Amino acid sequence: MSERTARVSTLPSDRDYASLDRRPPGATPRLVALAVDVALPVLPLVIGAVVVRSLTDANGGGEIDRAVFASLAVLAAVGIAYWNRGIRDGRAGQSVGKTMAGLVLRDRDHRGAIGTRAAFRRDGRTAEVVRTEVAVADGFTAIPPDTTSAATRRRRTGGLLVLAIALVLVVAMSIAVGARPLTFAEIAHALLNSTGTDTDVIVRSLRLPRTALGLLVGIALGVAGALIQGHTRNPLADAGLLGLNAGAAFFVVMAIYLFGITSPGGYLWFAFAGAAIASVVVFGSASIGGGRANPLSLALAGAAVAFFLQALTNAVVLLDQATLDSYRFWIVGSVSGRGIDIFWTVLPFVLAGLVVAAAGSPALNTIGLGDDVARSLGTNIALTRTAGIVAITLLTGAATAACGPIAFVGLVVPHIARSIVGPDYRWIVPFSGALGGLLLLVADVVGRVVVRPGELQVGIVLALIGGPFFIALVRRRKLVAL
Question: Does some domain include residue 197?
């Protein structure tokens, strides 16, 4: 029986099923379901049309801006329609509209879900819509996810293809969209035949470095998030759990307070040093007394270090108004105002972290079974966990040093990756990196246009869209098991 259907309506086991009203549903619930299901894909089209109409040349819009947002609206509408009418209707028997109206789509003969393809064809001779209580009484069964190796390979291959296309499109969008509207010809001229014009400077000196840094930081945060959740076996873990963000923040505050440093380039080494020292303290505290660091001790030590450093940071910023003014712009997290020099500075650390992460990710599959089982299978727990801490420190420290603490990326993208590729960390880690880069660039582009001609920092955008999304993810998927 479908878990979703069972939540909608459950019948007592001793009920007389013959007394159920088995007449076809009336026109009202059908119209409600149809209206909701039609409104879902139409909504992004309407929003896209409003946005495109507002992006006139007089309002600071451009042809690229209009093309980008029109394309996004169409893609969103198609994706929602496929998910709602195909996946939900075909595999679970209930689209969003049918759930609200208390209806179920099922096969006439075997009285189960009809499948994604059949849901699009919607042949009235083989499919029927009934009330939820009737479907439950007749033993309606949803189509479970296909977990065969062939299906997993198809999902992984398809996911890689979609991610590659999406990354290319988002990188192009990040270069094209901004406070200054540009044409396709101007962007092509800046990239291929730069002569030092204003548009050439905007593209090559501002947007290209910003895009490259955003992609690099997103990859680092996504991979670090997957590693943290794998090593701690905690689905809600991120860099904040191990005190890395708190360490970076404290050292940045001290750099401002003691040395008067106010530029992102000046913060860089202090933030990285703070994250590195915090990781050493956390790992050392978790291993104190000759014991081995385990997920519980790491989480407890990380929380203790984070609270302590946050208290010190708050004390310093409350004592000095100038420090608070500079610190509050760094703490929100942003990729704007960073030159290409910062990208080249953090690149070696991110690459080193990615290499260590790639080498250690296969062992996370056995660690997920428990330390005792992993040790019996020949996994060196201490070496694996040490390598993981090193990779996490390099990736998170570099990302935080470059752009400030950016939340949500490392928290959610591992769950999305896990739902696509399954529990194998050899795939989760690279998928998390690609998804992290994609998510951060999308959030950065959104922040450039929503308050034009000003900008909304990427950390704020991620908090606004990430919080509700993560709550929905937790409620609907119950956190895919680690």
Answer: yes
